[in-house]
Amino acid sequence: AEATLRFGGYYAARARPGLFVVAMNYNLFQDGDFWIAANNTDVAQQLPWLRDVLRQVRALKAKAILIGHEPSMMQPYQRYFDAIIEEYADVVMDEFVGHTHTEDVCVVTAA
């Protein structure tokens, strides 16, 4: 966890037996980031890492909760992220994000 936290600001940790918390750095996928937009690349390789973490969580017959700061990503990252979440829908219990500056709740379900 410490290596990925230092490298890209994201990590996974076991919260309790059978449950992992996966902290995403969604800031790396925002359209306001010139470097990301100009290079069109997952600079920290966070999405392949997420897929691998969820694969490991599934192998352990455990569940994962994702947390992050911002609720969405620019394309094509959002499509890639959505595909990962769909692939591991049996593993991902919830995702909690903030940054909206409003007192609301948005529930997104699989189509």
TrEMBL record:
Keyword Hydrolase in record: yes
InterPro entries to which the protein is assigned, alphabetical: Metallo-depent_PP-like
UniProt keyword terms in alphabetical order: Glycoprotein, Hydrolase
UniProt keyword Amino-acid biosynthesis, yes or no: no
Domain of life: Eukaryota
A GO term for molecular function: hydrolase activity
PANTHER family attached to this UniProt entry: METALLOPHOS DOMAIN-CONTAINING PROTEIN, SPHINGOMYELIN PHOSPHODIESTERASE
Protein name: Calcineurin-like phosphoesterase domain-containing protein
